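Notes from the pairing session

We agreed to fold both candidates in a single pass and log them together. This is the raw record for the first candidate, unedited. Please don't reformat it; downstream parsing expects exactly this layout.

Candidate A
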Amino acid sequence: MKKEPQVYLAQILHHIFKIEELTRDSKSEFLAQHVIHDAIINNFFDMGHISKQVPEEYRKQYDGISWGIMDEFADTWPVLQEVDCLNPDHVWSVIENFLPVVKSQIQSLFPDLEQWENE
């Protein structure tokens, strides 16, 4: 069964909210807790896979959303993590600089999106 594109966006937002919850403490707490670090990486990975499922025509229609960066979470990050090259400082930078942007991009286009998450 094919999902509505809004469902994918709601799922991406869900992962953003989870990352925000996991990082509500300090950067030093994030760096010290490998379990939290791994959970965050898994959420980014899931966001990337969800992003790649959004139909191309929809991606073109909403080209203000950073699809390419999210796609990289699925393509590049697992390889970097596997060879232990995923720098935690880089991950924190993405959390601070990218997540608020993509969250805002999605929420500004779809303010009532959370209703779609469980579709």
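Candidate B (folded immediately after A)
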Amino acid sequence: MNSKLNRAAMLTAAMLLCLAGIGQAKVGLSSQFINVVLEGLKPGRSYNLRELKGIPYTVKNRGDGPVEVVLEVIPPEAKEMVAPYEAIPDPSWIQLSPSRAMLGAGQPAFSDLTIKLPDDPKLIGRHFHGVVWAHTLNTGFMAAGVKSNVRFSVGKGPETLAEDERQKAMVELNYELWPSALYVLQAKPGEYDVKKQEKKSLKLTNRDDKPLVLNVRAAAWVGSKPEGYETPEDVSWAKFVPDTVTVDEESLKDIKLMLDVPESLKGKKLAFLVQLSLPIGTVVNMSNRVFVQVE
């Protein structure tokens, strides 16, 4: 009876030691290959990332023992998606060679990543997102993995297309903001309506045959300071109304300047610029000036 109890106790102790060893083991993977973005790809072509960018796919064993690692290409999860990219419809478009490796503790592995696109003209103008998932095999509940994003465009990428739109919008602008310099001569600390008190405002003329939409705001002075004037960095006390101006084709819109001058600026002569920008944020003009004399 005692011998049976002793064997059971020894077995229990052995199991506890085994579990302790597992608990102390460290398993982990890392990769410097986290986000890759490519554009200008063409249907029917193959692109090897090492040949294009001199960058292989890299994964490193961060654990303290050997592990077998496999590389898989999977579609991204919904939370990983970034517009206008769509999930890669066929993971085989992205291939890794080798796709499996046995890594010792602290050892890295390198693979060639190749994008192979079908010869389908319908792919032109689309943007795709695939995920490389490196993960351990045969490590049970101690499994580890790391994901890397591969985004590519068949044709121009989203950033290039956005820049093209900005440049096109700027070329098509045909407007005039007058006067080039607005002088406010009798401002006082606190709220001050320049149009009401001094009969002065900005006028935006749209000379085009399409409506014009621009954002208007005060901006700190840039360049050489005008003689006799201070150029504060904070010009939040100056507002234009409306701050988003829509002008019909071949029309003119009046823009009021509203001031709320801090008491600390009393007795000063101040200068700032008028910034015009497109609704997408592109600044198109900062040449108009405002000079304010605070009594």
